[in-house]
Amino acid sequence: MNKDQVEGRLKKAGGKVKEIAGKLVGDKFLEQKGRRGRVAGTVQAGYGDLKNKMKKIG
Fold first, then answer.
1. pTM score, two decimals?
2. Do residues 22 and 28 make contact, with C-beta atoms less than 8 angstroms apart?
3. Model confidence over 26-53: pLDDT tens digits?
4. Coil, strand or helix: which one is 39?
């Protein structure tokens, strides 16, 4: 695993926690912030996965 894979998955998990917390307390801002964090984490983890695959190929 590379840095982007680890950080991305951590951001994704943290975003999910914020999103659920926002839903539970009725805080739409926190919920949206969580969604953005989850999406950013997914993108970063995907980038890390791609880097890993390219490293194996080349």
1. 0.89
2. yes
3. 999 999 999 999 999 999 999 999 999 9
4. helix
